[in-house]
Amino acid sequence: MEFDGLDKIAAKGQHLLDGHDSVDTHRSFTNWVSDVSRWLNDLYPDSGLSAKWVAQGNSPLVVAGSYHDDSLTWARFRTIVEGRLRWLGNLPLEVKINQLLAPAVAQNEAKQTGRKEIKLNTTSRAYVDPDRISELKAISSDDFDLRKLVRLCEELNICFSGECYISMLMLTRAILDHIPPIFNCSNATEITNNYSGGRSFKAAMQHLNNTSRKISDYYLHSQIKNSEMLPNVTQIDFSNDLDFLLAEIGRIVGKT
Fold first, then answer.
1. What is the pTM of this model?
2. What's the confidence (pLDDT) of residue 109?
3. CA 233, 237, 240, 245 torsion: positive or negative?
4. Is 62 helix (H, G, I), strand (E, B) or coil?
5. Using one digit for the tens of pLDDT, what is the confidence trace for 75-103?
6. Which of 47, 56, 100, 207 suits 76 as a labelling partner, its CA being 20 to 30 A distant?
7. What are the distances in angstroms from CA 131 to CA 154, 183, 207?
8. Please, which residues bridge with residue 67 across strands?
């Protein structure tokens, strides 16, 4: 995430608060708005940020060729500048949120163009299919509250977007520890061994439970040493098996 020049831009806006000549200050304000708009377009093209910036409010010091130099107008002007400065202060957080939402946005765009999923890199696909999450959100059950499961899946997508692979292993393990009661089991191993979900489901659960736990145990419980190996996206990718599990959960809980 790059914000080169943000401090300099904010300083220019701060300087406007000390203006006294309405015409010169209005001109400086207009130039400031234009400069920031170009800066946002260069850093984040097609993001809508430049349009949001321009819409923050205009200077009331010069309107329709007439300048206004009364105290009320200056107070309105300074309020507008202060609002723009707050907007700039919140910019890094807004950009971060937009980046975290990128998987769901990419998935929706893929659906609109007739593709189910874009498999280019971690920022252009969602780890847990957003449609699957929506299905789980829509389920109402007196027996099982799926809100925590849904949030765990959403956080998997957030971590996937940020390449937080160790965190993804922890979240996957949390899901496996969370859902056994849905299958009338006490742990994920019982689901693998006892649940009559068919041969394909059993194979998916064996891989998801056994392999993901072994990998997560390695990264979560090993102590520091002089040489470390970090997980990559291939090593932590259990998305197909996890989707199989979530689909079965939706089928079961949707009936209750």
1. 0.54
2. 53
3. negative
4. strand
5. 999 999 999 999 998 888 777 766 655 55
6. 47
7. 12, 22, 23
8. 62
